[in-house]
Amino acid sequence: MEEEELMEFTVAHRRKYNIEHIWFQEKEEVLTVGISDFLAQDIGDVLRVILPQAEDELDKGDEMFSLWTAEGKQTFRSPFAGTITEVNGEVEINPDLVNESPYDLGWMIIVQPHEFDVEDLLDPDEYVDTLAEA
Q1: What is the CA radius of gyration of the chain?
Q2: What is the 3-state secondary structure (H, E, C) of the chain?
Q3: For the domain with range 16-133, which CATH number is right: 3.40.1110.10, 2.40.50.100, 3.40.720.10, 1.20.1260.10?
Q4: pLDDT tens for residues 40-89?
Q5: Strands 63-69 and 46-50, how do they pair?
Q6: Are strands 22-27 and 46-50 parallel, antiparallel or unpaired?
Q7: What distance in Å separates the CA atoms of residue 102 and residue 40, rounded to the nearest whole number?
Q8: How far apart are CA 94 and CA 74, in angstroms?
């Protein structure tokens, strides 16, 4: 009988998630964006972070940011159109922050979305249920 490998991870509250394991935290009409602890552990050590420029415009489906790991490049696309208002240059300098502190110091970008409803995203409990079903 095979032993199942267990992964322990945290899910931050006061955030919303999508099925690509990206979290969104809404504050004053902007969204701070990062990756979940589940994904940070699943992809292994982040070796490089590639962020867009502040003031860049995003269309739905555009690349928001990319992460390089030992497995290769992983690109994350925007679920909405918006303007990038700020980027976290610290994660470009120190990519370990993404694995060590995905919900705090390891955030990626802040976006002002154009017409986006955060209710379209998963709350923390729904996100955990989605992971359990996978």
Answers
A1: 15
A2: CCCCCCCCCCCCCCCEECCCCEEEEEECCEEEEEECHHHHHHHCCEEEEECCCCCCEECCCCEEEEEEECCEEEEEECCCEEEEEEECHHHHHCCHHHHHCCCCCCCCEEEEEECCCHHHCECHHHHHHHHHHC
A3: 2.40.50.100
A4: 999 999 999 999 999 999 999 999 999 999 999 999 999 999 999 999 99
A5: antiparallel
A6: unpaired
A7: 7
A8: 17
